Task: inverse folding
């Protein structure tokens, strides 16, 4: 085995090196920048969908700051009522593309939920989610862990202190109800991760149980993001995991307390992607590249920093997002997380400079390892019902993530002088180095999905 | 002058007839008073039927204005009438801004340069205003914070003290319990005593928790209700910043985003491509250059026909909703009237259709929407190139309303729910025709067509229109729900989007939309009344 493994690694390294040389030749040596063939757009009037969340920013900014216009595209971006409708509208051709949950293209492609081949060449952002619990649950958590009884409790807050609440509920014959936004959303996997780390079972999906309630100690149900605060206020759920501004909204309404953000659960985790159907990508390859070009510029614009290190364009971005046809929430609420602050309680304002990352850390590149993580979570929680070999993960993610399109767009932007050479990981094989930046410190290596799945206590094992 | 009298009379009776037909009978005494007819009586009428209701409505408004700010919810305050009026102003401003941008997009030549200068000076003024206001915000925020801290400090202190004493008490009780347990073990005290003590302890703990909670709520209340100065200044600043942004966007549309400018740029590209073509010598180069000329020309054409991408404003949503409800209503009428006539004429047809009508009539519009979403969606696999939508978008007025599958299934849902009242009323109208009339038709040996057009339809028209009037009302109500659910542009989507935005303006906008929907519904109903009256003999229909 070891010889074979070594040989494989050798081949891999060799091919990567060859690839690098080839890439260097094509990108930097033989072909002068201005000689790239101009893009002949197949389609120049496009319609994109989004959900009212701050992380739709790259799409909105690319439109409002004229980056789409620069590519000769006339783009209309329209709000969608929920993730299911958004996906359906992309599939039925009503929309050309959309702001999607990272899990959506993968799940659609492997046929969990609506089946359709969706691809992505652009990751829209990192982080940006939080878990909020209702005031009652927070009071019980404080009671269970007196160290939380302070205007500024120590972070990260684990789900340990939630255990008594869960147990009390179970004793009275009920299950604690919490909300997440979609079965294959980052939020679902994050809140499950957070609960499971503390030994609370969030429930498994099985072929019969598509709601994911099997063995659950806490039941997680789907609620569209904008309805989260009011659903919690009405008592249907006692907590939720959602993107911004809906955690800050709970604070400003005074109905709940954000206990943790996904930055604490997994530092710099991938969040949303820009998804289109495979059919659309095949029919409009040049338009696709032009769209990605505009989006890369939008991402870069959003993360531009002033000399003192502050994010200089974010305030303007919030101003744009607060328009009622985009996110529409109050400017003051949007501003919190977008300009690097987060209110955990009204008395607890913390600096979180990387709460929303749109460009740093090679964020926009469609990493295979990100896709594999989502697939491992689908397997862990039973959305993928049968055991798959490691090669399947690699093949599936390569069907969905299209770094070639991204690199083509980036190459053009570099030639036009719109981005710097250091902005893009030109010669990666698509897998990030292994990381232990999780709340429980378990190592994740995208090349070893099976080992990763098996390293967790709660959940399926292969 | 005698000749004047009849003329004035004819004007008077004309007016009276008009207000009678349109159903505004309340204005009847006003008209009569103007013509000097029994002033005493008319004034009495006006007092009772106009002034009293106006006062009543005014009182309702006052009650609203009084109650609204006192009814606190966690999602924000209930807006009072002035805030709702403010929502109207804001929405109208948004609409006007779109108009301005559209005009800028299309502006060319001298007018454009003039406009640029104008907008730039305006922008500078607004930016200065925003800057001064921005500088005051931190000061206000600091003073507000110190106010909050000042009022918070004693409560917080009380809370901390209370917590400390509670902790002492808990510790003391713990010691006591421990001691008692020891004495129980030594047989110096009974089990019952220990149990009683434990009970006491748990009761005391609960009490302590309650008192702590009460103080915590006080703290939260102080935090939740900061002085309004800060928020108002922030809102003011926000609105100026929005204006600044709008002006910047206008400059964009006047400069690089301007259609004329874009066309010019594209034409220049064609010219340079042409030059390249003329200079090229090798066949491959010639071909390439010629290709780029063609592409360039195509681009020029495309840009020339470009339209300003309007954002959906409230008035656009109103027009789109009206159009959708009109389509749905026409569909409903087109089905209901013929089927209703058949039902009325033939008992067998009626018997056949009764089960269908009775089962489908009570079904909720939401269910119909979901069904139509699936069924109708299948007809338009590729909406952008579908001939129906291509045709609709080429029409002059309707083209701007963005006809799409969502509109089709919203209209179908409206039709499905609006069809029943019209159908049932038509059937009733036809079946209740005076038997004498039908006998006359028999005697005259009228054919089916003549019988329909001469007797059946005319005599059942009042009831048919009464049914249609109910149908339109139902359709309008259903449409708002259908649009909200299917996110098809229109007033329903406006309300739903506002709800989803969850901004401080949300509540006011929703109530504003409520009035818009209500007022439009009222006018639709009036139109139907006029139609109904104009086909009825005698008294016609009630006006309320």
Result:
């Amino acid at each position: 085995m070891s010889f074979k493994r070594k040989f494989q690694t050798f081949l891999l390294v060799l091919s990567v090196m060859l690839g690098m040389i080839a890439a260097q030749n094509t990108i930097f040596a033989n072909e002068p920048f201005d000689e790239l063939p101009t893009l002949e757009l197949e389609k120049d009037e496009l319609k994109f969908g989004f959900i009212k969340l701050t992380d739709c920013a790259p799409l909105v900014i690319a439109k409002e700051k004229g980056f789409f216009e620069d590519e000769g595209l006339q783009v209309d971006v329209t709000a969608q009522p929920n993730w299911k409708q958004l996906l359906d509208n992309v599939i039925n051709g009503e929309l050309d593309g959309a702001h999607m949950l990272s899990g959506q293209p993968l799940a659609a492609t492997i046929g969990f939920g609506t089946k359709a081949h969706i691809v992505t060449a652009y990751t829209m952002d990192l982080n940006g989610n939080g878990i909020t619990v209702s005031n009652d649950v927070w009071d019980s958590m404080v009671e269970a862990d007196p160290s939380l009884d302070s205007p500024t409790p120590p972070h990260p807050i684990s789900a340990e202190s939630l255990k008594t609440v869960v147990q009390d509920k179970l004793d009275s014959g009920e299950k604690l109800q919490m909300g997440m936004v979609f079965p294959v959303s980052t939020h679902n996997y994050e809140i499950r991760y957070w609960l499971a780390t503390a030994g609370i079972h969030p429930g498994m999906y099985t072929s019969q149980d598509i709601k994911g309630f099997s063995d659950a100690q806490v039941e997680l149900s789907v609620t569209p993001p904008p309805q989260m605060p009011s659903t919690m206020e009405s008592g249907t759920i006692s907590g939720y995991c959602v993107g911004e501004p809906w955690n800050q909204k709970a604070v400003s309404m005074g109905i709940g307390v954000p206990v943790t953000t996904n930055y604490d659960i997994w530092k710099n985790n991938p969040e949303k992607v820009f998804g289109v159907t495979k059919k659309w990508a095949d029919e409009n390859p040049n338009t696709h590249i032009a769209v990605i070009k505009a989006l890369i510029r939008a991402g870069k614009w959003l993360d531009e920093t002033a000399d003192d290190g502050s994010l200089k364009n974010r305030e303007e971005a919030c101003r744009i997002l607060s328009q009622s046809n985009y996110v529409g929430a109050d400017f003051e609420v949007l501003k919190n997380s977008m300009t690097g602050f987060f209110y955990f309680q009204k008395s607890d304002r913390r600096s979180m400079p990387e709460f929303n990352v749109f460009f740093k850390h090679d964020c926009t590149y469609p990493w295979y390892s990100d896709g594999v993580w989502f697939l491992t979570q689908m397997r862990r929680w039973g959305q993928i019902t049968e055991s798959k070999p490691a090669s399947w993960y690699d093949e599936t993610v390569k069907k969905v993530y299209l770094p070639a399109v991204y690199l083509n767009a980036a190459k053009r932007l570099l030639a036009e002088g719109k981005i710097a050479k250091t902005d893009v990981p030109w010669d990666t094989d698509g897998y990030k180095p292994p990381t232990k930046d999780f709340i429980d410190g378990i190592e994740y290596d995208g090349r070893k999905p099976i080992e990763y799945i098996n390293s967790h206590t709660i959940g399926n094992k292969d | 002058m005698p000749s004047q009298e009849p003329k004035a009379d004819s004007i008077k009776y004309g007016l009276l007839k008009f207000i009678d037909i349109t159903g505004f009978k309340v204005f009847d005494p006003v008209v009569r008073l103007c013509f000097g007819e029994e002033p005493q009586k008319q004034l009495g009428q006006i007092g009772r039927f106009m002034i009293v209701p106006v006062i009543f409505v005014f009182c309702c408004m006052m009650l609203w204005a009084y109650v609204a700010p006192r009814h606190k919810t966690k999602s924000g305050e209930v807006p009072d009438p002035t805030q709702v009026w403010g929502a109207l102003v804001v929405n109208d401003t948004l609409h006007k801004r779109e108009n301005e941008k559209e005009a800028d997009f299309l502006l060319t030549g001298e007018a454009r340069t003039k406009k640029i200068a104008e907008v730039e000076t305006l922008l500078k003024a607004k930016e200065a205003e925003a800057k001064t206001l921005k500088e005051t915000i931190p000061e206000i925020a600091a003073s507000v914070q110190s106010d909050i801290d000042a009022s918070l400090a004693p409560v917080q202190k009380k809370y901390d003290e209370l917590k400390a004493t509670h902790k002492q008490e808990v510790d003391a009780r713990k010691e006591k319990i421990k001691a008692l347990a020891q004495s129980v073990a030594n047989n110096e005290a009974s089990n019952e005593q220990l149990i009683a003590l434990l009970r006491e302890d748990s009761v005391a703990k609960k009490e302590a928790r309650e008192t702590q909670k009460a103080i915590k709520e006080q703290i939260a209340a102080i935090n939740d209700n900061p002085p309004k100065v800060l928020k108002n200044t922030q809102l003011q600043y926000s609105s100026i910043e929005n204006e600044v942004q709008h002006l910047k966007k206008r400059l964009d549309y006047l400069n690089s985003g301007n259609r004329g400018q874009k066309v010019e740029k594209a034409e220049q590209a064609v010219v340079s491509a042409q030059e390249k073509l003329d200079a090229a010598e090798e066949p491959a180069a010639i071909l390439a250059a010629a290709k780029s000329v063609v592409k360039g020309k195509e681009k020029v054409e495309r840009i020339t026909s470009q339209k300003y991408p309007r954002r959906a404003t409230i008035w656009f949503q109103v027009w789109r909703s009206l159009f959708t409800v009109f389509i749905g209503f026409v569909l409903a009428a087109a089905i209901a009237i013929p089927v209703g006539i058949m039902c009325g004429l033939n008992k067998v047809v009626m018997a056949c259709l009764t089960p269908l009508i009775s089962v489908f009539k009570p079904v909720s519009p939401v269910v119909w929407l979901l069904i139509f979403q699936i069924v109708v969606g299948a007809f338009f696999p590729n909406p952008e190139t579908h001939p129906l939508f291509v045709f609709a978008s080429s029409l002059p007025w309707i083209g701007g309303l963005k006809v799409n599958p969502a509109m089709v299934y919203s209209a179908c849902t409206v039709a499905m729910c609006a069809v029943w009242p019209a159908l049932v009323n038509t059937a009733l109208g036809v079946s209740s025709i005076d038997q004498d009339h039908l006998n006359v038709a028999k005697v005259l040996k009228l054919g089916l067509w003549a019988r329909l057009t001469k007797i059946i339809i005319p005599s059942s028209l009042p009831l048919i229109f009464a049914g249609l009037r109910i149908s339109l009302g139902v359709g309008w109500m259903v449409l708002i729900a259908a649009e909200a659910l299917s996110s098809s542009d229109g007033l329903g989507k406006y309300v739903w989007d506002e709800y989803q935005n969850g901004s401080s303006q949300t509540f006011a906008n929703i109530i504003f939309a409520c009035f818009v929907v209500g007022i439009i519904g009222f006018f639709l109903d009036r139109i139907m009344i006029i139609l109904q009256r104009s086909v009825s003999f005698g008294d016609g229909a009630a006006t309320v």
Observations:
- The beta strands of chain B are 72-73, 76-77.
